[in-house]
Amino acid sequence: DVKVTQSSRYLVKRTGEKVFLECVQDMDHENMFWYRQDPGLGLRLIYFSYDVKMKEKGDIPEGYSVSREKKERFSLILESASTNQTSMYLCASSFGQGGYGYTFGSGTRLTVV
Amino acid sequence: GQQLNQSPQSMFIQEGEDVSMNCTSSSIFNTWLWYKQDPGEGPVLLIALYKAGELTSNGRLTAQFGITRKDSFLNISASIPSDVGIYFCAGSAIIQGAQKLVFGQGTRLTINP
Questions:
Q1: How many other β-carbons are positioned within 10 Å of the β-carbon of residue B89?
Q2: pLDDT tens figures, B13-66
Q3: Cα B60 from chain centroid (whole Å)
Q4: Are A53 and A36 in contact (CB under 8 A)?
Q5: In a mutagenesis test of the B interface, which of A37, A60, A87, A95 is the best target, namely the one with the most B β-carbons within 10 Å?
Q6: Alpha-helical segments (H) within B1-113
Q7: Among A35, A112, A41, residue whose Cα is nearest residue A76
Q8: Coil, helix or strand at residue B63
Q9: If we measure between CA atoms, which residue out of A18, A27, A77, A69 comes closest to residue A47?
Q10: Cα distance from B100 to chain A (closest Cα, Å)?
Q11: What number is the average pLDDT over the span A67-96?
Q12: Is B86 a residue whose pLDDT tops 80?
């Protein structure tokens, strides 16, 4: 069974902390994505990557960075966490041009206090 | 950027009722997808549509890719308690030179037994 695994289901961090959210996929997918999900706003793309060491900004990249050193792993970094970054974070991966749909992880619910 | 307008935002129905939701856009998409998100989980692909006018069924679910390629609907017949969740439409298109999915805001389905 193919999988996208997010390292934590729940995280609580303090304002100003550096936060790492990890995502690993076992499907040899080229493409990986980070979204945040907030009520009434749907899924908003933060960053994506189409290859190792490649990264592209999505719709809401401010306050975030990413790292993709290996094909299977895509990390989202909050350089200095703020309360407005409290949200559900979803990682996804896809094959080829992505028209076949994304496979999502179970999500990480991050609370910044 | 491109946007999908998904409606309704929420639905409260009785078990056994049929459900209908739709997505519209001012932009053309070459693939439409429907996802379901169970509480506390990531979205899971339900149906993918690849051709304008295509009508596809998956059990009690039926979805159509609009002729204009700017809309899609999802119907659920004879709803059951496990249908509860958030349903997302997604359109696939070339954005910023790369194939990406754009998501609707979601429809939250609640079922009264």
A1: 30
A2: 999 999 999 999 998 998 999 999 998 899 999 999 999 999 999 999 999 999
A3: 14
A4: no
A5: A37
A6: none
A7: A35
A8: strand
A9: A77
A10: 6
A11: 95
A12: yes
